Amino acid sequence: MTRVVDTIKVVELLEAEISGSILEHGQNELFVDPNKIFEIAALLKDHETLELGYLTSITAVDYIEYFQIVYHLLSMKFNRSLILKTNLYNRQNPSIQSLTRVWKGAELQEREIWDLFGIKFNEHPNMKRVLLWEGFQGHPLRKDFLGQEEQKI
Amino acid sequence: MTLRTEPITINLGPQHPSTHGVFRLRVTFDGEIVVDAEPVLGYLHRGSEKLAESRTFVQVVTLTDRMDYTSSMTNNQAYVLTVEKLAGIEVPERAQYIRVISAELSRISSHLMATGFLLNDLGAFATPLMYCFRERERILDLFEMLCGARITLSFMRPGGIFQDTPEDFWPALTDFISNFPKYLDELETLITGNEVVLARTNDVGVISPSDAINASLSGPMLRATGVEWDLRKADPYEIYDRLEFDVPIGSKGDTFDRYFVRVQEMRESLKIIAQCIRDIPIGPIKTETPFFVRPAAGDAYAAVEGPKGELGFYLVSDGGIAPYRCKVRAPSFINLTLLKEMLVGWKMGDLITIFGSIDIVLGEVDR
After folding, report:
1. Which domains are delineated in chain A?
2. Would residue B324 count as lying in a domain?
3. Domain shared by B147 and B213, yes or no
4. Set of chain A residues whose Cβ sits within 8 Å of the Cβ of B312
5. Which domain holds residue B147?
6. Is B321 domain-assigned?
7. Does B26 touch chain A (CB under 8 A)?
8. Residue B328 lies in a domain
9. Which of A39, A114, B137, B175 is most buried, judging by how many CB atoms fall within 10 Å of its CB?
């Protein structure tokens, strides 16, 4: 059975290594500072007591006041999982550091988020739309996208 | 004298018999050798995630059918498990057994298609594919008995399944699982030791275990590299913790291993189905759920081991009758991450085989 990692320990570890990285923590999720996401991810992946080496999924949710990026991490060695969440308040031009250098599995998923939510991932090797075509107006999974007018390729 | 060469970029697809749907690959060749490859996706994008936001929790089941249309049962299962987790719905035992049986049948049918199309891509045009389709047809007949549909099944509901099995289903299922091993032996005699197949697949398109984990690969793609990770064992859902089965793994992570892992998985699925037939209890098949399921505000992620890999749903509810956000963790899509690394250095013919061995479904890649 995959269990959640001991979040209290992770919080202590992260606070010691990267101060101010944790904003809040729940039973199985951590709310982290979006500006420090890369350092946090690299630490969680390589730390010998965690080894969260598998990025199950990245996704975004549009909560209107902010975008939330949700990372599902997994340690195959210890069979433990962890959820990281981070909020982006800039609706006009949201951006966050890409994690492709930590997990290559982030590559297509981050492109999908850019495509459907319009959240830029800095230092992503290939930040292009993936499901829709270049030149498409808008980002469909945003709540204010209604998609009433037809767009031709 | 040396001749000047220059790379040439060609389009493979979006309409091409070996692309398993509308998939386009921009490949750059130096002579016959691949030097660069970039998948161009989205030709089948229907916006399922957006559509889900304007449907009730139960209606979304029909959208999941149309993602991986070779294995609708596992899609249904992943989705309803997430809704059940989010809303805290209990599922009767009989329904769980029937769900596991149908998911395993789905897995066999999907692996049959994967194997058949791989052989198609190897150049054994259509004949071996029809052998696989003949057996798949029997599974579709079983599905037809269960729910009247053959491809887009919509069989499962949050809280159970929508109807109990008809009486003639069980003899037909027993008949299927007693005959299928013979067919698998026949398939293996034709392929597994076949010199041509071995020459074309051994050591072709190798992925290392660490690369596979780093690139979030899952399913037979991951297990072929030798990583023993199967959600049915690692994070058992439904009744998988009561069943005995092995997790086949490969050793080299090449095209042959990916094929062979699938063949062995079909045998394991038969074992699972046999145990389910033996143990299935009599009882209700669905928990009473309201017509509009209204989970409390919150989020949940649940995943199943689908035929292609880890198929997960991430649902966010705001307390309404429709999901606020419905994200699909599509294994076919994420398994394409390492496509370029697998293809570079191989020839045109190998490109088709390597791509065929990934086993993608464009309905799921593009959603």
Report:
1. 3-105 (3.30.460.80)
2. no
3. yes
4. 56-57, 72
5. 92-290+346-366
6. no
7. no
8. no
9. A114
- Spatial CA neighbour of A37 closest among A92, A106, A90, A91: A106
**Contact in structure between B67 and B279 (CB atoms under 8 Å):** no
CATH number at residue B352: 1.10.645.10
Looking at the 3D structure of chain B, how many domains does it have? 2
Q: Residue B337: which of A2, A104, A147 has the nearest Cβ?
A: A104
Tens place of pLDDT per residue across chain B (367 aa): 788 888 889 888 787 766 677 888 889 988 888 999 888 888 888 888 988 998 999 999 999 988 888 888 999 999 999 999 998 888 999 999 999 999 999 999 999 998 888 888 888 788 888 888 888 999 999 999 988 888 888 899 888 888 888 989 999 999 999 999 998 898 888 888 888 888 888 888 889 999 999 999 999 999 999 998 999 988 898 899 889 899 999 888 889 999 999 999 999 999 999 999 999 898 898 888 888 888 888 899 999 998 999 999 999 999 889 999 999 999 999 999 888 888 998 888 888 888 888 888 888 888 8
* Number of H-type helices and E-type strands within chain A: 3, 8
* B54: Cα within 13 Å, side-chain hemisphere: 8
Q: What is the pTM of this model?
A: 0.90
| Distance between CA atoms of residues B329 and B63, nearest Å | 14
CB B77 within 8 A of CB B160: no
Considering the domain architecture, whether residues B134 and B196 belong to the same structural domain is answered as: yes
Which residues, other chains included, contact B164 with Cβ-Cβ below 8 Å and sequence gap of 6+?
A: B94, B98, B285
Position of tokens 């509901």? B157
Q: What share of chain A is helix, strand, coil (3-state, %, to 5)?
A: 25, 30, 50
Q: Quick check: B327 and A59 CB within 8 A?
A: yes
Query: Which of B24, B36, B327, B360 is most worth mutating to test chain A (most A CB atoms within 10 A of its CB)?
Result: B327
Residue B173 included in any domain = yes
Which token pair is B98? Answer: 């029937």
Task: At B120, give phi and psi (nearest 5°).
Answer: -55, -45
